[in-house]
Request: fold
Amino acid sequence: MADKEEVFEKVTECLVEALGVEEDEVELSASLQGDLGAESIDYLDIVFRLEKAFDIKIPRGDLFPENLLSSPEFVKDGRMTDQGLEELRKRLPYADLTEFEANPNVAEIGNLFTVEMLVKYVEDKLNS
Amino acid sequence: MRLEGRTAVVTGGSRGIGRAVSLALAREGASVVVNYNQNEAAAAEVVAEIEKAGGKAWPCQGDARDPDAAQKVIDFAADKMERIDILVNNAGVIRDNLFMAMSDEEWETVLQTNLGGVRNFTKAVVPLMMMQKSGRVINVSSMAGERGGRGQSNYAASKGAINALTRALAVEVASKGVTVNAVAPGMVETEMSSNVRGMADDKIRKSIPLGRYGTPEDVAGVVVFLASDDGAYITGQVVTVDGGMTVAVKI
Reply:
């Protein structure tokens, strides 16, 4: 079974490599975009490094669901619709959506992607 | 030796420009995986020539049209060489015909091999290059990408697309230390152009300011430059190598 501390350590390594941040900047609550400065290409880099570090396969769209923001059923006037939130809940079962659900401003969706989310996802993958 | 210790994959490396590129990269010290589709013997010859000169090379079969095959070639190369510094997307074919007479097969084969091949191999290699924080992707395009020639609508479409893809991808991956460029040869002395040259030799020569066809080595030299440290600050560019053909006005 995967040790949470070990997973966090390796995830930290991946983020340091991909984003060029310092180890101590990588806290569980840190958001990839807001706190660690990740851009879209970085998300891919992170996925590749996680796959290599943990010897797992991460299907494209699993961690950072594409197409969520481009569908008119899911986003209206810069806010996520109820349908969109439903879809989001399905695609990111390990993310904490409470804050976002209260104010589903799509421009801030990046805040959902935290270090903790990555750790939970990897643990899930390793334990399944 | 400008590429000492570097590693490269050259698609369609068994003949023509691909062969010259494989040999040139190896001459500069790079280890080379020579990809081919059907020409097993020719690829083996290229590998043998590289080894005879003291270099390292391996042949690797894979159809550029097949994403899984391309992935297997990249996996093979990563396994043999531990990293991939240079990818030369050279695999390409022609199926000339006038546009209105062109069959679906002629259209698809050229698009899938030439453009699809670039996509398939590049997609497989970029994750490695990103993790290495360095890499050079060099696409072999053609002057046909920017100039219209009768009977080559499919080829021209594929090469024009490669030029645009070169620019778009370069911007995407630049922050990860990967450069993406293309070379656009004019009329080069290879099997691919032998028919056209045979039919209109005199006329074509007269339209080339430098007065001669290009050699595969002329093109390979530019590829080596782009792959070397001297080319490090160049990205998103299409470098035309045509003896002046595309800039000449016929008076």
Summary: The first helix of chain B runs from residue 16 to 27. The mean pLDDT of chain B is 97. Helices of chain B lie at 16-27, 40-52, 67-81, 104-132, 153-173, 191-206, 216-227. The first strand of chain B starts at residue 7 and ends at 10.
